[in-house]
Amino acid sequence: MSKAPVRTDKTCLNCRHVVENCFCPNCGQENVSVRKNFYHLFVHFFEDLTHYENAFWRTIKNLITKPGSLTSEYLSGKRMSYLAPIRLYIFISFVTFLSINLLPADSDAVTVNMNEQTKVGKIDVETAKKNAHNLVSDLAKDNKIGKKEADSLKNFIASVRKKDDDISVGFFQDDAKTLEEYDEKIKEMSEKEKPSAIEQMFVRKSIELNNRYTGKELQERFFETFKHNLPKVLFIYMPLFAFILWIFESKKKYYYFDHGIFTLHYFSFLLLMLLLEHLLSWFFLITGLEGYTAVEVIYSIIVLGLLFYSFYYFFPAHHRFYKTERVITFFKGIFIFMINCFLIILVLTGMALYTFYNNPLGEII
User: Fold this and answer.
1) How far apart are the first and last CA of the chain?
2) 289 neighbors 110 (Cβ within 8 angstroms)
3) What pLDDT does residue 222 have?
4) What stretches pass through the bilayer (predicted)?
5) Among candidates 238, 249, 319, 270, which has minimal Cα distance to 71?
6) Minimal CA–CA distance to 254: which of 312, 322, 188?
7) How far is Cα 150 from Cα 152, in angstroms, rounded to an integer?
8) Mind listing the pLDDT tens digit for each residue in 318-348?
9) What pLDDT, on a 0 to 100 scale, did the predictor assign at position 157?
């Protein structure tokens, strides 16, 4: 409550409703003077900041140490003491993926080193290919080789690539170096031997990209795009996760909204564990401690502990919120966990294929 003087006028400035006490019964706005001095603004700012900070740390503490209790308390009506579930998820998601993009970890440092090596290798190969192409052209001009032989040599030179430079997509791969060569192979196949239309589509895309970019360039941009789209995928997948919970739990006791709140808290916890693991990796990288065996063992133990707790967390959270017997919770949780693992793999695979085919090197979608 603000310490500013209460207005003598009993008409709410926000909704024009009659205000008998300090707060409007219609919209909740405090009936105080609009014009405040700097002291009141300063104090009000720190009151809001302190309230938000206390609510934030209280929410994080309960989220980590008391699986499922945050959802139970929120749905029981205790909402002012904690951050709203959607606000909590958006905040943790933003901080997590911002940290992943801004703070380098071991894998990022290795990628940078590999990219530098790839650039040098690419320059050498491209220079050699250009020189060889010019040499063949000169030989053809001097009539030392025929036009047919010159064309064959030029096609061979164009197909030469740096070792391990090509990229394939799972089973969608072929030894053809150009689209024309691949089309000729398809024409020579019988109807039974021909690959499916989807496989042909991805093979053609793979050949096209291999002829334009190095494998390292393609992989780097692909994973960058994939990483930027991951928060969207998780956000889209949450309603499906809540729907699976709705299928397995009582329809009379719990609404879909209740499962949605549980899902928001659970996914917020998973993102928080991901953030802790990344910050830990970043800390070991910048301090130079990753080279010490004892430190690496400690790091591995901590990471394994985070992974185990992330897996274990669902079961006490499920038991505490849905109030089922522990044995039933365990077997039901295992089944729900398996279904969601299968579905999330399908979603991530579909996202990976979509990213590769539509936008592996374009702008982040």
Assistant:
1) 45
2) no
3) 67
4) 86-105, 230-248, 260-285, 297-315, 335-357
5) 319
6) 322
7) 5
8) 999 998 888 888 888 899 989 988 888 888 7
9) 62
- What's the rounded Cα separation, in Å, for the pair 224 and 130? 31
pLDDT value, residue 156: 62
C-alpha to C-alpha distance for 282 and 94, rounded to whole angstroms: 18
Task: Output phi, psi for 69, to 5 deg.
Answer: -70, -35
Contacts 24+ apart (CB under 8 A), 81-86: 81/55, 82/55, 82/58, 83/55, 83/56, 83/59, 85/261, 85/264, 85/265, 85/268, 86/264
HEC letters along the chain:
CCCCCECCCCECCCCCCECCCCECCCCCCECECCCCCHHHHHHHHHHHHHHHHHHHHHHHHHHHHCCCHHHHHHHCCCCCCCCCHHHHHHHHHHHHHHHHHHCCCHHHHHHHHHHHHHHHHHHHHHHHHHHHHHHHHHHHHCCCCCHHHHHHHHHHHHHCCCCCCCCCECCECCCCCCHHHHHHHHHHCCCCCCCCHHHHHHHHHHHHHHCCCCHHHHHHHHHHHHHHHHHHHHHHHHHHHHHHHHHHCCCCCCCHHHHHHHHHHHHHHHHHHHHHHHHHHHHHHHHCHHHCHHHHHHHHHHHHHHHHHHHHHHHHHHHHHHCCCHHHHHHHHHHHHHHHHHHHHHHHHHHHHHHHHHCCCCCCC
* 52 burial type by CB count under 10 A (0-12 exposed, 13-18 middle, 19+ buried): exposed
Query: Is 0.70 surpassed by the pTM of this model?
Result: no
Q: Is there a contact between 231 and 97 (Cβ–Cβ < 8 Å)?
A: yes
Burial of 303 (0-12, 13-18, 19+ CB in 10 A): middle
CA-CA distance, 172 to 191, in Å (whole number)? 18
